Amino acid sequence: MKKKFTILMLISVLSCLAVKAQIKEGTWFVNGLNVASVQFGSYLSDGSYGGRTNFTSVAIGPFPSLIQLSNSPTLSYGINSKWSGGLFLDLSTMHEKENNYDYSMSTILLGPAVRYYLVGQRQSSPYLEGRLGFGGSKSGSNASDKSNLFGYELGIGDTYFCTPHFGFDFGMGYEHLAEKPKDSSDKTTYGFFYIGVGVLVVF
Fold it and tell me: Alpha carbon 194 to chain centroid distance?
């Protein structure tokens, strides 16, 4: 499966020709479809078992193992040739079962996203972007542990358009995510940088 995915991405890259982008007023497009990304940072937990922990995460394909605003499918509307705004949605689930151990976790994160193309529409179009997300999670053996989620992302990148309706986003930035249990005053805060490549599709 991964081999087929890699071949498909290679064919897409090789097919890129000199074209002009088509994001303009009234245009709808989807981005945030991850191809490959790396995240590195730390998380800080409160409570008796708390502390700061560093981590590095690598994701290949459309399903990153770490909750990420930057890798969340985003539906956007072109306000003009430079500005666009929309909504992103991140859904993730995890289930582990072995012998007497049974653990599951599901999360949802939803919020507004904005992007600004610095030089308008060209084949190579640098941009600034930001996202703000709100949501929640359920975890535990019977999904009884509930938490509120809040996060934001600030990024910079470049969209390289292969055709007027298809391109790659090369981006990097910073993300912050806070998780607070509903039945506890403890919370966990994530702060990390990311570098990644994603897909953009214009309708």
Answer: 10
